[in-house]
Amino acid sequence: MGRLFAVEIVYRGIFQKKLAANLSRAIVLAAHREGKPGISFGRYGDSPERNGIPAKYFAIVATDELTLEEGKAKYEPKEVDVSICVDDTLFKGVESWAWYGLQPINKLLKPGGTLIVTSLKEPEELIPMAHRKETPFQLAIVKGSTSFSGLWVYKDDHTDVRILGAIAKVLPELFSLASVQQVIRDEWKTELKATSAQRSFERLQTVTVTPDQGNPVEPYKFEMPNWMEMREGIAIPGIPLGGKMKDPVTGEEGGWKPGRNAVFKKWATRTMRPVVDFETCIKCTLCWLQCPDSCFDVTPDGFYDANLEACCGCGVCEAVCPVAGCVTMVNEVQFKDNASQWEEWRKDKSGYQVHLAAWIKDRPQRSHGFHHRGQYQEELPAEFARQG
Ligand code: SF4
Ligand code: SF4
After folding, report:
1. Predicted structure pTM score
2. Contact, 91 vs 209, CB < 8 A?
3. From the CB of 272, is ligand 1 less than 6 Å away?
4. What sign has the CA pseudo-torsion 184, 83, 223, 96?
5. Peptide bond into 322 cis (omega under 30)
């Protein structure tokens, strides 16, 4: 039996669908140039996909047809040689349509496999975000901002070819730099992108992540009912009623925390989260009314606290808030947990204001959203400067 290679691409639905599909296709084409057959397929994309919901593409390649048949006989690979993460906020975990619970970003990696991520962060900032893994793995960072686009547009910031160059470096048995460069020339008809792949290949550095590094918290999971426990027909349980909130300082009970889906939390959908300045909030209720996912908890003192287990990061609350700077969307990588902002503010108001100022200091431009023709072309020079 020959050798089977598997690569997964973990991406955000809609915003990165074409990026993931392009990567998966080019991986198979590059291997094919070297006589290795393969297939590329998407998983966990709803139809239509939902904005930001984590999803996966897989590329499976083998040294011969029979081995590929064996690989194809499985629904999907149980382990992969390379995981590609095209948004570093997914380092916190992946909650997809396809399973209950949170999957660590490194879960499918073989011992010693490589996790390639596009990020402007350093390894020491990224490693604590990912869950611990029992076996060591390699981490490779392709320097750049997260590449997002829309359903009908593609942001050609070279993320695709830079990742392809990185794969040639970390797994040369899959395909060589020369092979993937030829695919890039054939597919994209530009020498510039072939050069970008080469620069990524030459610059890529990897670090080893050991089992004692990373987030030690066990990711949440749920027991699936076995067939004896399933009810007849299709039964969708309603969301349970919520309950009152408790003021952490006075102990007073009041307000309302709505019941929420216990087995699909949604926060892994988010690349940005809202942070609220309770000192300037005028309790107008607009964020609470307009949040498409009913994410706001109503506090006993009449404020609106974005529940960060449930928030999918759409940004509507920031858009509708009538007070300038009262709700600000900030990048998700700054946060270690989903704790209540209101509780933190109630316990230590001046300390909260210090945190708030730090969170909104480096407010990035909106990470996704296409507003006008030519927008991406305008953004590209700054992105190429960030990539160095
Ligand atoms: S970003 Fe705001 S409006 Fe959107 S889901 Fe989160 S809390 Fe609701
Ligand atoms: S929209 Fe702004 S001002 Fe109004 S309740 Fe929400 S946070 Fe407060």
Report:
1. 0.93
2. no
3. no
4. negative
5. no
Ligand at shortest distance from the CA of 260: 1
Between the CA of 297 and the centroid of ligand 2 the distance, in Å, is 12
For residue 39, the cross-strand partners are 60
Of the CA atoms within 13 Å of residue 114, those in its CB half-sphere come to 18
Protein residue with least CA distance to atom 8, ligand 1: 291
- The tens-digit pLDDT sequence of the chain (388 residues) is 799 999 999 999 989 999 999 999 999 999 999 999 999 999 887 666 788 899 999 999 999 999 999 999 988 999 999 999 999 999 999 998 888 899 999 999 999 999 999 999 999 999 999 999 999 999 999 999 999 887 788 899 999 999 999 999 999 999 999 999 999 999 999 999 999 999 999 999 999 999 999 999 999 988 887 888 877 787 777 888 999 999 999 999 999 999 998 888 889 999 999 999 999 999 999 999 999 988 999 999 999 999 999 999 989 999 999 999 999 999 998 898 999 999 999 999 999 999 999 999 877 666 666 778 888 888 888 888 888 8
